[in-house]
Amino acid sequence: MTVAVSPEALPVSTAISPGSWPALVLNADYRPLSYYPLSLWSWQDTIKAVFLDRVTVVSTYDKAIHSPSFEMRLPSVVSLKTYVKPSRNPAFTRFNVFLRDRFRCQYCGHGEDLTFDHLIPRSKGGQTTWDNVLTACSPCNLRKGSMTLKESGLTLGRLPFAPSVQDLHANGRLFPPNYLHESWMDYLYWDTELEP
């Protein structure tokens, strides 16, 4: 089965706007729950979590909400009060395969009209596993068909592998959303090299 994915089909967090007032959600250790898609909540969900005492407000926008007897600045960064243990092994999903492969065809390197391909075709006993599924563009996938890599004449940039959560987080940082509020920066890039 082949399903093409275009950049427009990526998660909503990549197309956020400053006027929607999203909040960056951090785990109790002040690290984002995820980088891609970036862990963001709508301002409505964030306010609800504040009132239910599930989060600590770390930073706020200049924008406030009002009621007749209450005013509150909208949170821009919140931290969960209870630590959520990250999964040790990422889920084997189509999206995570694309993220592992950095949204590039593993045969030619193009990043458009992406599908996934079985390195060893299913017709030849190939399994649908991390070690046998990779990102491919439609033309390369069609060219390879049900042949082995050697039979197709294609070359492989990198063998498929089971990524760690850290691998996917590192790759996720390569695809930031179109909008990043200044209050988020200290929490998104805490482990990047500092400028002199």
Automatic annotation (TrEMBL):
What is the superkingdom listed in this entry's lineage?
A: Bacteria
Q: Which Gene3D superfamilies match?
A: 1.10.30.50
Alphabetically ordered keywords of this record = Endonuclease, Hydrolase, Nuclease
User: Coiled-coil ranges per the record?
Assistant: none
Q: Name one GO molecular function term.
A: nucleic acid binding
Q: Name one Pfam family in it.
A: HNH_5
* Name of this protein: 5-methylcytosine-specific restriction endonuclease McrA
Task: Give the organism, scientific name.
Answer: Phreatobacter oligotrophus
User: What lineage is this protein's organism placed in?
Assistant: Bacteria, Pseudomonadati, Pseudomonadota, Alphaproteobacteria, Hyphomicrobiales
